[in-house]
Every structure is written in C-alpha cells, then in structure tokens.
Amino acid sequence: MTSARSAPRxxxxxxxxxxxxxxxxxxxxxAREPLSDVAKLRRxxxxxxxxxxxxxxxxxADRQVRADAYGRNLLxxxxxxxxxxxxxxxxxxxxxxxxxxxxxxxxxVIEGAVEVTNFQREDDGSWSDRAVLAQTCTVHAEPGxxxxxxxxxxxxxxxxxxxxxxPAVTIHTYGSEPxxxxxxxxxxxxxxxxxxxxxxxxx
Length: 203
Hints:
Layout: H1 18-32, H2 37-52, E1 71-77, E2 84-90, E3 94-95, E4 105-111, E5 114-121, E6 133-141, E7 146-149, E8 157-161, E9 168-174, E10 180-184, E11 191-195
C-alpha cells in the first residue's frame, strides 16, 4: 500500500453513510459554538452515543488495515473548525501503545469489542525521552459504547482488540487533527513521537 503521508489530507461528506454524515453535521454545529472543551466533549459524546446506537456503514475503502497492525482511515476533516473523524479498524489481537492526542476526543465502538485502558501521568508532566504512566482503568467496550479523552489529565489511553477471531471498528472524533502524538512504552517509559497518517488515502 502506498504511504498516506504524502496524500492530500482532506475528506468531505461525499459518500458517507447518511447516519455518519448526520453525525458529522451535528459535530460541526457543536464545534462552531463558543463552548469550553469540556462542554464540547460532553455534547459530542452525546452525538457519538446516538451514532453508535445503530449500524454504521463504512465503504470498503475506508476499512483499510496495515500489515501486522491496525488501520487508521480518515472519514472527515472539517475545513473551518479543524475537527476530524477517523475510522479505526482493529484486527484480532492488535492494539495501540498508550498515547496522547493533545485535544478532546471520543471513541465510539460500532463493530466488535475493544478494551480501552486509560492512564495518567505520574511524573512532572514535561516532555523528555521518558514518561511515567499509571493505569487508572480498563473498560470492555462493545457496540454502542463511547469513551473519551480530555487533556491534560485524561489524555493517555490505549485500545486493544482481545478477540482471537473478530475484528473491531471504532469511530474516533477529535477536536483538532493530532498530526503528532506521544507514544509511551509501558515497560521502559521510553517516549517516541508518532505521526498521524491514513491508510485509506493514496499518494
């Protein structure tokens, strides 16, 4: 598959499932309001719960998965407010390392089930080559469930599909596109910088 890093980072509502398009329009209205991040997150979570309460159709082109890992597929990037909606596809026994986003966000489960583990930092909060994270909780999330992230204290999380046979799909909405993020190795505390790319955008 061609790397998505050189691809145009843009998507419109064209071709989206009507329920998903209606969700995007609802988030657009929320994002334009002069609200705090906490208030925006609360209202977007309500919209995400409604979206996840029923079936969501994704085009096969938006269900891409990279070899030996999960897939990240751009569904919509708002040109005015900058919020982004992404479909994540998790093959069996795959997941992400603990990572941050630097913005508010929701994770809505629409297919399969995932384990969402939240972490908090137990160091001074500065960025160097290491960080100390403590696990706060792990939630088994099935279709209809919505988890949230909110900096600075509820930003780090990891997602894992524990199934041996069934893939999972989650819809992620972030207040801004997190072009770079911090990834932490729990065993060593080593911090690496990840770059956001998309598996459904060709060069």
